[in-house]
Each structure stands twice: as C-alpha cells, then as structure tokens.
Amino acid sequence: MAVYALTGFSLVSLLSFGYLSWDWMKPSLVADVATDPMEKSPPPTFTRPPHIIFILTDDQGYHDIGYHGSDIQTPTLDRLAAEGVKLENYYIQPICTPSRSQLITGRYQIHTGLQHSIIRPRQPNCLPLDQVTLPQKLQEAGYSTHMVGKWHLGFYKKECLPTRRGFDTFLGSLTGNVDYYTYDNCDGPDVCGYDLHEGEDVAWDQSGKYSTFLYAQRVSKILASHSPKEPIFIYVAFQAVHTPLQSPKEYIYRYRSMGNVARRKYAAMVTCMDEAVKNITWALKKYGYYDNSVMVFSTDNGGQTFSGGSNWPLRGRKGTYWEGGVRGIGFVHSPLIKRKRRTSWALVHITDWYPTLVSLARGNLSNVQGLDGYDVWPAISEGKESPRTEILHNIDPLYNHAKYGSLEDGFGIWNTAVQASIRVGEWKLLTGDPGYSDWIPPQTLTNFPGSWWNLERLTDGLRKSVWLFNITADPYERYDLSEQRPDVVRSLLMRLVHYNRTAIPVRYPAENPRAHPDFNGGAWGPWATEDEGEEWEGGRESLKSRNKKKKKCKICKLRSFFRKLNTRLMSNRI
Fold it and tell me: What CATH number was assigned to the domain covering residues 51-388?
C-alpha cells in the first residue's frame, strides 16, 4: 500500500481554513456601488431568451474560493454561488487553450486538432476556421455578442480573431499572458510586444490601466449602451489570476499577515477579481438585465501551485490530468433557476456550455454535428440527472511518452506510454505521464524548514504508466486500483481506443519568424495574409538588429525564474 507523509501540520487544521468576514456595503474600489448588487427580487417568468454572462478566470485553484474553505476573501463569488447552484462535479481542461477551445466549440480537443499544449504566439495556428463557434450560434439566435479579456485561440491571420469568430466587439489580449498594466508579452528573449486590442486594432491608449479594472468597466459600459429588451451574450475571460503576480497595493495590504509573498499577491488578485464580478452583477441590476439573466462562473484549469495557487486537497496542479488540474470551480447564478441554493453533483464538463447556452437562447442545434457536449440545464436548474456519463480528459500523442509504458501493459489494445485520461461513471483512468502528482497544501505558513511549498508525497508506485481511481469514493486519488481491477482498466482502455479512432491529426506547427512584434509596429497581431495557407515551415533565424530601443520585458525574466523553480520542484520529487 502507498505510504503518505504530511509534514508540519495536520490535515484537519488545513481543511478548517475559512475566509475572513467582509463588509458587503463597503463601496468597491473598481467602481462606485450605490446598492447591494444581489438584493432579492421576485423570480421572473422565463418568457424570452435570457441574457448570458459567462465569466472565466485564469489559473484560479480549486481551493481558492471562500466556499471551498480558502483563506482568500471571495464574498461576491461565495454569495452568488450560495444563491444559485454550485457545481461540485465540474471538469475543465488542465491548461488554457484546450479549455477555451472546448468552451467555444463544444468539442473535445481531439476533434479540433488542439490536443497538444497551447497555441503559442509565433505559431501559425488558431481555432479551426471550419468550427461554428458558440457566439456565432448565439448571433444566429438574435443575440448581441461581446468578448472582454483573454482570447488565446490563435491570431496569425485576421480570420482567427474574435471579431471574425462570432463576437460583435472585443477588448482584450490575444496571447496567453501579459503584464497587467503595460500589456507587454515576451515569448522569449527580445521577442516582446504589446498585446491589448480593441476590435481588430491595437489599443495603445489603454496602457497603464489594471486589466481586471479595465475589463469590468468595459462590461458595465456594454450593458449601459445596450437595451435589456434585446438578448446579449458577454464572455468575460479575466486575465486574473494568471502570472505575473500583480495587484494594486490596497488589495495586497489586506493580506499583509500572509507570510508567503507569492500567496499574498495571488490572494490580492483573486479578491480584486471578486470585486470586479460584484460590479458586473451590480451593472446587470442597474441597467435592467438581472431578472432575465444567467451568469455562469468557471475556472479554466487548476491553480499553478508555485505561483501562489492551491488545489488542496486535490492531487496535482495546472498542466496535469490529476483532479487538481482538471476539476474546476463552477457555479450558475440566475433568477431563472427553478431549484436554487443547492449543490449539484451532476457530472458537467466545459464542453457542455455550448449546447446548454444555445438551447437556453432558443438557438438551432440541429445543424451542428459532432458535439461532445450535452445540454445540462435541466440538471442545473431542476436537479435532474445529468445526461453525461463520461468525460474524455484528453489523448495527447505528442506529449513525452512514459518511460515505463508499453502496448503489453495496455492488454495489447493501448500503448500506456501515451498520455491520456478518461472518466467513465465513477472510474477514472490515466495512462502515460499524467504530470506532477503531489498533494500541495495551501502556501500560507512560513515556519517550515527548506521550501515553502512543503508537499505531501506518494512514496511508491513511481514506475507506472497506468492508474485507476474510483473518483466518487476517492476524489483525492490516493488509492490506485489498477492492479485490483484489471477488468475496469481494460474497459476504460477500450473507450480510449474508441475515442482515438475519431481523433483528427494534431495541429502544432513550428513557430514562424514573421510573427515577431517588430514586424507589426511593436504589437502582437496577425501576420499572414488571408489567402495564405495554414501550413508553414517554421524558422529559427534571428532578426537583424534594429536601431530603435527595445522594450524591457519583465515577464521574460519572470518566466525564466518560474522555469528554474519548476525544474527544482521536479528534481526534488521522491
């Protein structure tokens, strides 16, 4: 049997963390709030398509919300969730692009060719242009559609941009992470550029504004200028709380007692985002949308534990297929919900939002073939059984193959060296290398010897390529049952074989030097012409030196630091 060791504190003490009290009547620092944004109102009749607000946060850990016992203050999210439906069997993807692509298309990433890694800034790659997106279906249903925040679905040519994929307006960044104030993003030494766009133009004039503030204010402006008599869809993809760890000082001051600096800054960013959601909710009420609105809140992947995030008590972190990487925070808040104020254990995946929201909008799904998502509104609103019984977490044929995997270990039907994961009913199977596998407690205490990330570690079973867990009975993935239940392993491997037969080739082209921001006026943006194909031969040729002064890139240094830190973490594994 596996041996576990927890150092420095008790499990009970960690699970007993609560969030601090909060004055709901105190005006927000994001915008002036005159009234309580969530005061009770009579439930309206569901007689017309609802306004839909989808809020997606970036790298927020499973533990990093008040109602999961966090030490971080999230009073708005806690109250919205408490008055709506908490989704406690909700799954997302382990990294940015896959979650966003599956939300927008309703398809597993094996069906869009995005099953490996993320779309990088210099890659001639984007969400496949033949995919009909969620906002396009909502436009067909008569919705005004708007996006605010992080895109990260490719931009190498204009057809890939949000305004060409179904959004009437867009304010946000195209790449994966930017400075919260300057909007600079570096994709390597001396490959830096500005990344904030208004529609299809570079928004140079917005530099210096903290992105969480900017995005919340833009949502309020959209609501103020639109008529609540006409349906609206707003996709708010906050940059928060992805690195770099940046927050206004007044939020950091609230967590001055936190000994861990990264956790302190991260907590400040979460609370700032929470207040931004408060102001969006207030705007919905002020401008007459709230009574006929559906607000969905979702994280995009697990928290990055060496950047302040926590997925405790789940195993793993962002970038892994352990529960800490793929089980998300999710809830729905709406006056239209029939059974409010409850927790749902219905199985829900991020692909489900596509058919669910299109159905709510009374859109037409009959002409959309091959969706992997299900309409889960009856499960959410009425407490009915979820139509979903399984989730393909992913099959990534390009990820480093596990050293100890083989076709023989997969009963001759599956090469267990391949990174893959699937859940069927209460069973979850992982093959290949699932990623960093420790349980990482909240980084709030400072009196540990050695490193601040003190881990609880599994001390045997490292030379493996197959794991099986009963996730219902063992949500923390502590008891591997692969040897006891080979029948279940074989059954789930057959499901992987089934899905793999439907997969399309991986889209992961080499980087192209034409993407360098210096060729685009110093900003990240499309570089290919509309008639150029998607197949490129990447190059590593260096750019000629230019006379103009290069911008300093703090993010590049930060990335280098975290890469080194990650290397240290991996080298310290037992």
Answer: 3.40.720.10
Which residues, in sequence order, are CB contacts of 545 under 8 Å at separation 6+? none
The CA distance from 138 to 160, in Å, is 18
Provide φ and ψ at 378, rounded to 5°.
-60, -35
Query: Each residue of 158-207: pLDDT tens digit?
Result: 999 999 999 999 999 999 999 999 999 999 999 999 999 999 999 999 99
Distance CA 207, CA 196 (A): 8
DSSP-assigned letters across all residues of 95-107: SHHHHHHHHHHSS
pLDDT band at 440 (very low <50, low <70, confident <90, very high): confident
**How many CB atoms are located within 10 Å of the residue 116 CB?**
18
Task: Look up residue 553 and give its two tokens.
Answer: 């890139």
Query: Distance between CA atoms of 201 and 204, rounded to whole angstroms?
Result: 9
Strand partners, 232: 144
What percent of the chain stands above pLDDT 70?
Answer: 81
| Residue 410: both structure tokens together | 């997969």
Half-sphere exposure for 366 (CA within 13 Å, toward CB): 2
Whether the link from the prior residue into 486 is cis, omega within 30° of 0, is: no
**Using 50, 70 and 90 to split pLDDT, how confident is the model at 27?**
very low
Of the candidates 51, 63, 96, 242, the residue annotated as catalytic is: 96
Catalytic residue among 152, 197, 333, 349: 152
Phi first, then psi, for residue 84 (nearest 5°) are: -115, -130
Proportion of the chain in helix, strand, coil states, percent, rounded to 5 = 30, 15, 55
| DSSP-derived 3-state class of residue 42 | coil
* 96 annotated active-site: yes
pLDDT at 430 over 80: yes
Name the 3-class secondary structure at 273.
helix
- Break the chain into its structural domains and give their ranges: 51-388, 408-439+454-502
The CA distances from residue 517 to 1, 67, 364, 508, 522, in Å, are: 54, 42, 40, 21, 5
CATH 3.30.1120.10 matches 408-439+454-502:
yes
Q: Quick one: three-class SS letters along 227-265?
A: CCCCCEEEEEECCCCCCCCCCCHHHHHCCCCCCCHHHHH
Beta bridge partners, 99, equal none
Name the nearest CA neighbour of 281 among 61, 73, 31: 31
Q: Give residue 450's pLDDT band: very low, low, confident or very high (50, 70, 90).
A: very low
pLDDT at 8 over 70: no
Per-residue confidence band for 459, with pLDDT thresholds at 50, 70 and 90 = very low
pLDDT in tens, 324-380: 999 999 999 999 999 999 999 999 999 999 999 999 999 999 999 999 999 999 999
Q: Residue written as tokens 């103020």?
A: 224
Q: How far apart are CA 71 and CA 55, in angstroms?
A: 22
Q: Mark out the alpha helices in 362-485 (DSSP H runs).
A: 377
Round to whole Å and give the CA distance between 63 and 323.
Answer: 12
Q: Helix, strand or coil for residue 219?
A: helix
Q: Read off the amino acid at residue 378.
A: P
- Note the pLDDT tens digit of each residue in 44-65: 456 899 999 999 999 999 999 9
